[in-house]
# Entry
Amino acid sequence: MSNLNVHFDVNFSARFVRLALTGAMLLAAASQLASESVSLTTYYPAPSGVYTQLIATGNAYMARDAGFLDVGTNAPSTSKVTIDVATGGYPTAIDVRNGGVRQFALNPTAGGGWQMYDGVGGAYNARVTDAGGNIGIGTSSPASALSVNGGVQLGTDAAACTAALAGTERWNSGAVQVCNGAMWGPIGASNTFSVTASYVAWRWPNGSATCPAGTTVTGGGGHCYSALGYNFIAQTSPNGSNGWYVSCDTPNNETAYLTVWAQCMPL
# Structure
């Protein structure tokens, strides 16, 4: 039997050979590639540039390690956060909302003042500071250092009245009192108040009631009494500029009692 010879000519281009070798190498290293990871260090947002809108669906960190956060300006800043509301014509600097409803807002005003939005009242009149440093509550145009459009509730102040608290008001024992720099007293047309003193002596009790420092005496009087009840005032008169003196007498040889009072007014 004669042999049958079959001859095939197979030709591969250089490009095909390179591709085949590359594929074989990738398949051979597939198990190792599957266990490898690649870390890239880049920046956000990437690429760098100017964006009209950025949305973060998770946490967002800005100027975390250094630098400043500027809103509405690209001027060099010296504060960690700077907001310039003049850019773009937006009047509100900070707006806090709950379910889309404004609850709090901070807004600069013309002339260098600022105002805070009252979510309950629904207007920019909760607290206002104007260019002169005046503060208003319930008004957008405070005329005094503190202007309140509404009632003011006072509480009890247990601090002693001192010169540092002069002019301070408090609510005490069902009345409004003011500190005159020396003591608390009721508010009135003349802001006067009384002090008393008591004395006991055989037949002729006498003594003075003295107004506290920072006040002057405007009047006074006294009351004399004893067990038998026959007494009379022998003298009643001012004692200096801040006291009132009273002396009593009784023809009975017995112990007599005296209560003297002075009417005082702050200087």
About this structure: Residues 193-266 form one domain.
